[in-house]
């Protein structure tokens, strides 16, 4: 039941169609004396409405509402926000393990002899199988079907489990493989604008198990990515807890100049906001320049909030949103209802952002944005296109310690290999990722560039692996209608799948002769992709330099075949008449783009793709068999699906709010360690701990598959943790790969083997790292594997938001070094022991604790560090040993009370 405060804010209105609805009115709350509400950022108001509506006096109280209603731009952030979201979205990479955790919870409740029905989603859940396809086949008309065939063959056991889960759990909807990428489907199909429930309406809000869930904020829906552990809690009706955020206002002015794309804009913004250090903050875009950006343009910017470090990059709803909803086939009645609701809340007014108070305002002049790329290792490293040749050569020669490739003495400018491959050659050109494939203008510009190139007689270079993987089938629909797919096919950009492919590292193999050449000559070759991530070796294990670019530039680089092309002065090829052709000669005009845009933004495309019965488009999906029932039957002989250990191993449920003594350093890492470095991804090598484990089970290397397909086998995942081929451990003189020193025996060995030996002596472990620890994808296994290795604390200079939360959710304590102490100044060798003291059940949010470093010469150092338990909810999770035990205890006690 709502409290008196909440009840007094209930209002009724009639929709344009004549139906009556109830809603919780923020203007009504403002009338009760909270005069600041009309000046709050819109993203704060949406959370405030959720708190008002979900106020039960237990999870959410009047005090929580009043505190947020009095939000001030530059106040100390001491209070936590309990945010109950309207729905959940799951990708398969983290979503399947989340379903596994739900199944495991049911099993645990069943073992206690209690009812299992409470273990089911309490809010609507949409799941997309979108991370399971790899580009094994490309450059041919049958590539799509061949890749889909392999996808089903490789994942039948996992897909069978998902089919069981869909019939076992309530409130779930599944989009099978072959339909598209979660975030693009969310934008084009899932997002309702308003949620209607029990006679009430309220704004759509969500969290999802992928860091790029925040893409939906481009449509005015407040949502962001969380780890699967947090998403599991939200699925079961628990609030998402976050520290009251700062909100950075980004004022957009003027318009993009011809030739500049939304990709150029988002790369510019990513570079700017990384420098502004917006990690953990909300970013809200406003200003006159906002009006000229379409929803796909805004979604491109929102998609990369994780790359610039923000929790969300939010655009409030306006006329552009209503236009997009209409263009994508949403009903006129629902759009009119949304418009009426936002008017009543005073959120949709064109003048509303003029009075908003922000923590800080940053200005971005859209007219100053120029064509650019980002790379070669991080999405925030902006390179103007005109500077790329010099930038690449400079990075190539720069020392590895400074972020370069250390090639000063052996730059391969010429080569004796048969295909004449050298440093800087582009071997992968991929139009991929929802970041850009959700944007019709960006995609059609690429299609027109391909058409213009073919009209001139240009072809892709033979050493470039080309691929086109749209984020939804709508893209192929409008490419065909506009007559552009044929030209893309002629350049090798045949559709290879409707899935997350190259951007997530599923680029598939290169030609044997290409891979052999790269290995033999130790080349620094390149990938160019229209994605959002380009960490070293992510895209392909042999590709060390990767650049993010617009889809049109991906096509351009496929034509030149080398990254150090100066497009302003160098031709990209010769026409059939032998005339030099420059990029400016084939770049589409604004009029050309506008003509085909009218074809693309046809609501009938969206209705045809997303109509009833149209979501099952995979011809092989019916082959996947499934079991039924409320409990999953775990097969002890399965090498893919094992019951997660977190609720059936008492050691993994012990409270972690206690001092650590005589701990050891498992690994000491530098800055910008990503979850790609920590969580196992890619192929399983036969000489790795995971490979040796599989070989000992009698599994041939040809049947290893990859880490992504075995995410529900913890025995594989723990053995692959910290095994990235480019990771550097300072304890072993920065050697590359998953190697550390076992201090007790003074022996170098794989990290998993060292952890096993420490486990035998019950030695707690600590991971040390530099700035931005855990940046990148929301990979649960980065935290799960850390915990299973016996790590009880991570001590870093700073943390990315999602990974820090995930560590807490698994019972690992995140601790932050003070600003005046560097990691290197600690002088760690791996021979030290550590005490971490000042931790008990009376701990407060962001309390200081003490690290004692005990060295071999009997000297000791003491360092005061910050325990990054930022909210009382996080303290509760830590006191329970993690979020899973906490939820289990809560649900089983509620079941007992209902008895």
Walkthrough of the structure:
By secondary structure, the chain is an alpha/beta fold. Among the domains are: 4-72, no CATH class; 372-398 and 423-610, Aconitase, domain 3, CATH 3.30.499; 655-679 and 721-880, Aconitase, domain 4. It has 31 helices and 34 strands. The strands form eleven sheets. It has a seven-stranded mixed β-barrel. Strands 6-5-4-9-10 form a five-stranded parallel β-sheet, sandwiched between helices. Strands 14-13-12-15 form a four-stranded parallel β-sheet. The radius of gyration is 27 Å and the shape is globular. The two termini are 21 Å apart. The model has no long low-confidence stretch (mean pLDDT 92).
List its traits.
5-stranded parallel β-sheet, Aconitase, domain 4, 7-stranded mixed beta barrel, 899 residues, Aconitase, domain 3, alpha/beta
**CATH class placement of the domain at 372-398 and 423-610:** Alpha Beta
Give the number of DSSP strands.
Answer: 34
How are the strands of the largest sheet arranged?
24-29-30-31-34-33-32
Major sheet: 7 strands, mixed, barrel
The CATH superfamily of the domain at 372-398 and 423-610 is identified as Aconitase, domain 3
Low-confidence stretches: none
Give the end-to-end Cα distance, rounded to a whole number of Å.
Answer: 21 Å
């Amino acid at each position: 039941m709502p409290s008196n405060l909440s009840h007094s804010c209930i209002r009724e209105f009639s929709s344009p169609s004549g139906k009556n609805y109830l809603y919780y009115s923020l203007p009504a709350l403002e009338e009760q004396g909270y005069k600041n509400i009309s000046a709050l950022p819109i993203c704060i108001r949406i959370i405030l409405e959720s708190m008002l509506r979900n106020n039960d006096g237990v999870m959410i109280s009047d005090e929580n509402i009043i505190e947020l209603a009095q939000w001030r731009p530059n106040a100390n952030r001491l209070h936590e926000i309990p945010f109950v979201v309207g729905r959940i979205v799951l990708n398969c990479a983290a979503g399947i393990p989340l379903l596994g955790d739900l199944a495991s919870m049911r099993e645990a409740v069943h073992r206690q002899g209690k009812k299992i029905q409470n273990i089911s989603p309490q809010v609507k859940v949409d799941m997309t199988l979108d991370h399971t396809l790899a580009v094994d086949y490309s450059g041919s008309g049958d590539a799509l079907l061949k890749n889909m065939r392999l996808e089903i063959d490789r994942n039948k056991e996992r897909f069978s489990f998902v089919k069981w889960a869909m019939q076992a759990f309530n409130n779930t909807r599944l989009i099978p493989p072959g339909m598209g990428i979660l975030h693009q489907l969310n934008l084009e199909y899932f997002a309702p604008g308003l949620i209607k429930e029990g006679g009430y309406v309220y704004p759509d809000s969500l969290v999802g198990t992928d860091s790029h869930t925040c893409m939906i904020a481009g449509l005015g829906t407040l949502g962001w990515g969380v780890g699967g552990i947090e998403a599991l809690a939200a699925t079961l009706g628990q609030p998402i807890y976050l520290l009251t955020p700062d909100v950075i206002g980004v004022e957009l002015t003027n318009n993009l100049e011809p030739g500049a794309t939304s990709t150029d804009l988002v790369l510019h913004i990513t570079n700017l906001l990384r420098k502004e250090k917006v990690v953990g903050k909300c970013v809200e875009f406003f200003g006159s320049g906002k009006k000229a950006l379409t929803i796909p343009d805004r979604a491109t910017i929102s998609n990369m909030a994780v790359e610039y470090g923000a929790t969300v990059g939010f655009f409030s709803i306006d006329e552009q949103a209503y236009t997009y909803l209409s263009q994508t086939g949403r009903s006129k009645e629902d759009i009119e209802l949304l418009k009426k609701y936002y008017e009543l809340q005073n959120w949709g007014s064109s003048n509303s952002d003029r009075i908003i108070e922000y923590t800080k305002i940053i200005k971005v002049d859209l007219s100053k944005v120029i064509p650019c790329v980002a790379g070669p290792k991080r999405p925030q490293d902006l390179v103007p296109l005109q500077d790329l040749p010099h930038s690449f050569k400079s990075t190539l020669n720069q020392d590895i310690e400074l972020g370069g490739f250390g090639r000063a003495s052996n730059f391969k400018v010429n080569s004796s290999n048969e295909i004449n491959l050298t440093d800087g050659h582009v071997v992968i050109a991929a139009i991929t990722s929802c970041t850009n494939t959700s944007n019709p203008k960006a995609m059609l510009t690429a299609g027109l560039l391909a058409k213009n190139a073919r009209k001139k007689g240009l072809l892709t270079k033979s050493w470039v692996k080309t691929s086109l993987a749209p984020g939804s089938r709508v893209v192929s629909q409008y490419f065909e209608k506009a007559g552009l797919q044929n030209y893309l096919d002629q350049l090798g950009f045949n559709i290879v799948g409707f899935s997350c492919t190259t951007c997530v590292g599923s680029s598939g193999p290169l030609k044997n002769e290409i891979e052999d050449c790269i290995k033999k000559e130790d080349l620094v070759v390149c990938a160019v992709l229209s994605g959002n991530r380009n960490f070293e070796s992510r895209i392909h294990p042999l590709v060390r330099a990767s650049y993010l670019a617009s889809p049109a530039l991906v096509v351009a680089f496929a034509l030149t075949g080398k990254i150090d092309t100066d497009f302003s002065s160098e031709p990209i090829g010769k026409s059939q008449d032998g005339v030099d052709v420059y990029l400016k000669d084939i770049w589409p005009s604004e009029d050309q783009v506008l003509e085909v845009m009218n074809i693309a933004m046809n609501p009938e495309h969206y209705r045809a793709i997303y109509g009833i019965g149209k979501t099952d488009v995979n011809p092989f999906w019916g082959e996947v068999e499934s079991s039924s029932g409320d409990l999953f039957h775990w097969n002890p002989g399965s090498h893919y699906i094992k019951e997660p250990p977190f609720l059936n191993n008492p050691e993994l449920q012990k409270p972690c709010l206690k001092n650590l003594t005589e701990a050891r350093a498992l690994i000491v890492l530098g800055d910008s360690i990503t979850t790609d470095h920590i969580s196992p991804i890619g192929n399983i090598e036969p000489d790795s701990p995971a490979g040796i484990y599989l070989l000992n089970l009698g599994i041939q290397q040809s049947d290893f598959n990859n880490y992504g397909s075995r995410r529900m086998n913890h025995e594989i995942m723990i053995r692959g943790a910290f095994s990235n081929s480019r990771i550097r451990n300072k304890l072993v003189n920065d050697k590359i790969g998953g190697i550390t020193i076992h201090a007790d025996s003074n022996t170098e060995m794989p990290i998993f083997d060292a952890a096993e030996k420490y486990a035998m002596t019950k030695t707690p472990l600590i991971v040390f790292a530099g700035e931005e620890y855990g940046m990148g994808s929301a990979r649960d296994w980065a935290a799960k594997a850390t915990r299973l290795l016996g790590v009880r604390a991570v001590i870093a200079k700073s943390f990315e938001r999602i990974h820090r939360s995930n560590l807490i959710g698994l019972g690992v304590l995140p601790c932050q070094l003070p600003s005046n102490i560097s990691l290197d100044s600690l002088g760690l060798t791996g021979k030290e022991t550590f005490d971490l003291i000042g931790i008990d059940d009376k701990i407060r949010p962001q309390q200081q604790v003490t690290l004692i470093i005990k060295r071999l010469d009997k000297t000791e150092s003491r360092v005061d560090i910050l325990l990054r338990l930022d909210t009382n909810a996080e303290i509760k999770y830590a006191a329970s040993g993690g979020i899973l035990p906490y939820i289990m205890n809560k649900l089983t006690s509620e079941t007992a009370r209902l008895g």
